[in-house]
Amino acid sequence: xxxxxxxxxxxxxxxxxxxxxxxxxxxxxxxxxxxxxxxxxxxxxxxxxxxxxxxxxxxxxxxxxxxxxxxxxxxxxxxxxxxxxxxxxxxxxxxxxxxxxxxxxxxxxxxxxxxxxxxxxxxxxxxxxxxxxxxxxxxxxxxxxxxxxxxxxxxxxxxxxxxxxxxxxxxxxxxxxxxxxxxxxxxxxxxxxxxxxxxxxxxxxxxxxxxxxxxxxxxxxxxxxxxxxxxxxxxxxxxxxxxxxxxxxxxxxxxxxxxxxxxxxxxxxxxxxxxxxxxxxxxxxxxxxxxxxxxxxxxxxxxxxxxx
Length: 308
Fold this sequence. Notes:
- By secondary structure, the protein is of the alpha/beta class.
- It has one domain: 3-Layer(aba) Sandwich (Rossmann fold).
- The protein contains nine helices and 13 strands.
- It has helices spanning about 5-15, 25-50, 80-90, 115-120, 150-165, 175-185, 190-195, 220-225, 295-305; strands at about 55-60, 60-65, 75-80, 95-100, 125, 170-175, 190, 210-215, 230-235, 240, 250-255, 260-265, 270-275.
- The longest helix is centred in the first third of the chain and has 26 residues, at about 25-50.
- The chain is globular.
């Protein structure tokens, strides 16, 4: 077989690979390469997004200095109740206590605000604790022991609105449920036993072992979340409760017998819900008390969906 002419060799060497289409151009090839790289980067970013652990903030309980005390009791303390942190972490997310901030502090002023926490965390849990001050919903305390914690109210109300404005989900527990209602213009019964004739007991010395039945109204999101149970058994550790609903607040559960509000939802946000009971004291998979894991999961899904 004869040797190919030099011109034929040059043409063979310069020819495009046979796997390319006849009408492929350098521009078309470059576009396909860029598109392939983009898809690869997008898929990696998506995997990283799904793997990145959620960061959930929990508002602080506040211990105020005791008059005349020395040592630790003479200081402002901020802390978490262990069960609420462990309940949230049970779904493999990170938990951060959000401290109060003071941009004009004399010892350690800072430019960090609660808005920064709302920007960098994925969701907020308002934990239980002291009474909401009647002053916060424009009333006077009918008894001195019901003055509540006005300082904590102001801190948590700012937190609530910063997270709502940032489009981040909020879950309020007990006091947190009441605070959400007040935060949108609602009021509270300062003491159920005194203010609601015929009300059943919502708190006693049994603390978290005290319980009662709640009912989910038809059409509520909780009724949809627990379709097989029109009612459920929960713990009850509160002497205050929602009275007049705040704007755009709807009832998600009420107590059987006396119709005290037991859960609420703010309708103008993806997820802002308050539970009057303490789900962190219920066992996951429990057969007696309501397993509140589906509520927590809904909250965390909203946190992931609204991350950006």
